[in-house]
Amino acid sequence: MNLIKGRLAIFSFSLSTTAPLVLASLHESILVTLPTVLLTLPLALIVYAYVSTYWGPNGLFYYTKVVSIRLGSVQLYSWLLSYFLYIIYTVDYVDYMVLKLPDAVANALTLVLPILFSMLVMTGLSYLALLALSIAQILLALPMPQLGWVESIAIVSLTPHYLFTNILSSSLLIVCITLIPYVDGYVHLSKYVLYTFALSSALMIIGSFFKASLLVNQLTSLGYVGLIMTEYTALYNLLYHSLRVKRSKLILPVLVTLLDAVSLINYNKFYNITIVPSVAALYLTLLISLSVSWIYLNRSSFFHNRKGITRIAYLVLSIIASLLMIYGIYTVLVQSSGLTLYEAIAALIIPIALGFMMPLR
């Protein structure tokens, strides 16, 4: 991959992690979107700092295991659980809930899409697909009347509790920017993280003053497809380029396709029972990765030749980002009940138990 292709591949992969078209179409009040950007900025700055020191397929596992092998293992197990499930249930979400296709068409797509994604990832063509998806999302996110966008200032309740919960909930939408470290990148291109965050945040803020048409809302499926592709690519990179799993590379796509086929029995129920453990595990893996960030950066060369205030600033950023993930875990637990509550608890406990009993190096 030459430098030009490398730059395009890295930027399109990075941009796809934030699903910019989805963010642009949220149409949340500026009283929500602006604080959301400020609250998620620490997340972007930590990812930027991470890839400024090392950028390879190990992803967040690399940074965490430098601090602690056992914590790194917990992070790895919870990450694998979260994103494996995410890849599967998001296919259902796109087919049935975003596009709202007739069941016959949605059923067929649910079987075809995992096979298509697997082929693109395994052949390395996923980066080209992500480039096309990124360009399409940016063009569709521009509030042009030709696409059905209309001027409309989003209104929100000024109740402090409502504002607070809306801001925190919206902030958790950008957590997938933490997928950026899972691609083979160039350290000197680490600012792509900040460019990605700035562009996606700007589109989300602009979306506070424009309302998307039905067509654009349906085409947000491109953003979710882009997310699936980045997650699948990241998972593939971690398993086969970083951990160097020796088993057949066909095992992963076969599992993904089979489970998506199982979801056809009852896609609503399947979606509900898979999303909860996935999200719980996601917040756990990110809590670990973000809470140890200052320790890792302190041991790396990141703070060299930087002012002392930078070291203090990153300690504060680590605390803010960690608190956001704790809030995420809290919301999952309080909003779950019955089976899903047991699933959420299991998704938190099992990776911790495995990480300490079966640490990976």
What features would you describe in this structure?
- This protein is an all-alpha fold and about 350 residues long.
- It is about 75% helix and about 0% strand.
- Helix 4 packs antiparallel against helix 5 and helix 5 (about 70-100) crosses helix 12 (about 250-260).
Which residues sit in consecutive blocks of at least 5 with pLDDT less than 50?
A: none
Structural class: mainly alpha
Rg, Å, rounded: 20 Å
Order of helices and strands: HHHHHHHEHHEHHHHHHH
Query: What assembly state would you assign to the polypeptide chains in this entry?
Result: single chain
Beta strand count: 2
Helix content: over 70%
Beta-strand content estimate:
under 5%
Number of helices: 16
Give the mean pLDDT.
90
How far the N terminus sits from the C terminus, by CA atoms, comes to 29 Å
Instruction: Tell me about the largest β-sheet.
Output: 2 strands, antiparallel
Note the overall shape: globular
